[in-house]
Amino acid sequence: MKFRFNREEMSDALKAVCAVAAARTPKPILRCVRLEVQSDVLLLSGTDTELSVRCAVTQVEVDEPGDTLVVADTLSKIVNECDDEILNIETDSSQLHIRGAGSHFQVVTQDADEFPLVPTMEDGPDFAVERDALFRLVEWTVFASARESTRYAMNGVLWEVEGDQLTLVATDGRRLSLAKAKLAQASKAKVPSAIVPGKAMSLLSRLPGSAAGNVGVKITSNQLLMSIGGAMISSSLVEGHFPKYQDVIPQDCDRIVEVKTADLLGALRRASLLTNEESKGVRFAITDDSLTLSSRAPEQGEATVSIPVKYKGEPVEIGFNPVFLLDVLRVTHADDLSMAFKEANRPGLIRLGQDFLYVVMPVSLASA
Amino acid sequence: MDEFFAAIEQLDQPELRGKPVLVGGDPKGRGVVSTASYEARRFGCHSAMPMANAVRLCPQAVIVRPRIARYSEVSQQVFSILQQFTPLVEPLSIDEAFLDVTGSVRLLGPPETIAAELKREIRERTGLTVSVGVAPNKFLAKIASDLRKPDGLVVVAPDRLQDSLNPLPISRLWGAGRVTQSKLDHLHVHTFEDALRLTEKEWQQLFGQHGERFWSLVRGLDDRPVVPDRTAKSISHEVTFPIDVVDFDHLRNVILDQTDHVARRLRRHGLAARTVTLKIRSADFTTLTRQSTVHEPTSETEVLWRCVSELFKVWRESHRAPVRLIGVGVSHFSDHEGEQLNLFNTANEGSQALDHAVDTIRDRFGDQAIRRGGQVRDMNQDGT
Fold it and tell me: What CATH number has the domain bearing residue B9?
């Protein structure tokens, strides 16, 4: 193979591949990026067998097509470190040569036939979502999924499509995020629901390309495929049953507090300075138009922080792990927020219009 | 408490008063004596003796089957009286406890006064007598409480500590079992006074890591704190077998019983534990402890048992030696304060309901009223 390419475009694509290609693996071939040079396009792909990515690099001039494998991280670093606008790549029987103005790199190649098959979206997507809308859903949900739960289903994010609406739900068993968006192009047939690993979704934002456009999505019985611009992500689905999330979204929260997001964020950060492993909870004491956060770390100290809120009703006291609230406040991007409660051992609810809701379970407070 | 079970029977059935009473199993089977009243002890009967032997020694004795529910009811009553004198009450068994009254002296007077008041209060409210030992530490207090039963009150003054210990037989030394006893016997150490002859080094050479503790104890030195259950950092239950045990199934039943006990104590105090420990001492005195940690703090018997039985399974794959001591413990507690509540019920509701039901039955009818399958089989073997 022999071709020239735009270094910057190539660099961006390689970063996405490196996010998937394993750094350490018992199968060394999974550390590789596949370079498929066709007449007018270069396709880069990487996989860890569960999650795969394929990116097209279009600013190429091909002299001779070809197909080879090199270690992704090595190629990415080389392309990154060079400052040429254009680089040349050429292969001989066992080496890949990268040439810039004053530099020449030789990298060992491997046989492309050895590389696992990266799935493709054969007959187009089932439905499409605006890229921005999907990015927002990802940002609103992935953080709330479990990391290493033994209930595997909670390590992924649930995707449900109904009519022209996509709903994503994530939970770690203590808090739950639910976000909705309208589809840009609805599906003709019924789309099965799917539990998608968070890693696959986070990868979306690392793909090269412009912000505009739609993401085409196809869900099969064991895979989710997403295509955007010249890039495509495919991921195995998480097996198992997602918890019955509808049952835990409270319908009876009648104590509603309205607060400025920035106020609450600051107060939470300050109050959580005096929490520790053993006492993670921050006490929320809500009275007429005032919210007082207090925390206590045994043998360390205590904190009390008050902020103004809009609240009318009976005073209520409830404890929360501040991390669960800080997490959601960081992604809401809204100036004002409403939180609703019922009582101290019942979940709290945060809503943002019709498109986002967040349920968080309290920590129990000492009766004192 | 003095002859606790027998005393309660004599209290509840006035016609038994002044008569030799044996509380325990059936003399026709392999039942043993749980408690002998002082009248029966005069004939040589004592607890843990086969009931048949006891009856031979004292044919006129009245045999009463134990009513554990009643005994634990009285026990609870007694413990709540103890709580009035200090919050630092460490239960040792159904009828024994350590109290640290250091902080109560200013309010209630010197320890002897507190002890006398405690005896009076228990007698008045329950009709039972108790023997109390007052001493600077747990070891001496326990010895002192045994010295003048029944209805005793023995005070070991800090400055007369060694004098009180010296004449005592070395069998009173805490933690000194069969093997220790016979080793000491060989060295002609029969009393605490004899034991003073041994240097710290000699103790260590004789008994390894326990040597140091023995050296301290014969000098009346013991710095273990009184640890009430509710502030305990761990709860454990262990048993040293009278005869080393080789039978894995028997060991398994013992630890099942212990797990059950430990879990119940956790629940009683509203605690949940994260770490489970299995301790096994082999006949050759090598002690092995194995721990496992659960993701969510728990007090469910079922969950704890899963950990314990897994630890036991791993142990038995590589060990064959007869077992001298076995025990189950839990630690790394979280009380419910600051506990993160779950959206979905991750706990096994069935298992929790079972625990609750079993606890309720045992609170009313005693620990033997309901048992797990494995435990029942063992119970039948005991003939109880």
Answer: 3.40.1170.60
Among B184-193, B226-235, B350-359, B366-375, the range of highest mean pLDDT? B184-193
* Reported pTM: 0.60
Number of structural domains (chain B) is 2
Q: Give per-residue pLDDT as tens, A107-118.
A: 999 999 999 988
**Interchain proximity B337–A365, CB inside 8 Å:** yes
Active site residue B96: yes
Residue B339 contacts A, CB cutoff 8 Å: yes
Task: State the Cα–Cα distance between residues A215 and A228, nearest whole angstrom.
Answer: 5
Residues of chain A with Cβ-Cβ distance to B344 below 8 Å are 171, 173, 243-244, 248
What B359-368 contacts at long range (C-beta under 8 Å, 24+ apart), as own/partner pairs, is B359/B264, B359/B267, B359/B268, B362/B264, B363/B72, B364/B69, B365/B68, B365/B69, B366/B66, B366/B67, B366/B68, B366/B69, B366/B71, B366/B72, B367/B68, B367/B72, B368/B68
Q: Is residue B185 part of a domain?
A: no
Q: Does B293 touch chain A (CB under 8 A)?
A: no
Q: Which domain holds residue B376?
A: 234-381
**A323-358 residue pLDDT tens:** 999 999 999 888 999 999 988 888 999 998 889 999
Q: What is the CATH number of the domain that holds B280?
A: 3.30.1490.100
Q: Where on the phi/psi map is residue A311: left (φ > 0), alpha (ψ -120 to 50), or beta?
A: beta
pLDDT of residue B378: 47
The phi and psi torsions of B150 (rounded to 5 degrees) equal -85, 170
Is B345 an 8 Å CB contact of chain A?
no
Alpha-carbon distance B305 to nearest alpha carbon in chain A (angstroms) = 19
How far B295 CA lies from chain A's nearest CA (Å)? 10
**CB neighbours of residue B269 within 10 Å:** 17
Lowest mean pLDDT among A2-11, A107-116, B277-286: B277-286
- Angle at the Cα of B49 from the Cα atoms of B97 and B40, rounded to 5 degrees: 80
- On whether ipTM exceeds 0.85, the answer is no
Angle between helices B349-365 and B68-83 (to 10 degrees): 90
Q: Residue A214, SS3?
A: strand
Domain final position from B29, B51, B66 = B66
Nearest-by-Cβ selection for B341 from A171, A361, A366: A361
Catalytic-labelled residue, pool B3, B9, B73, B96: B96
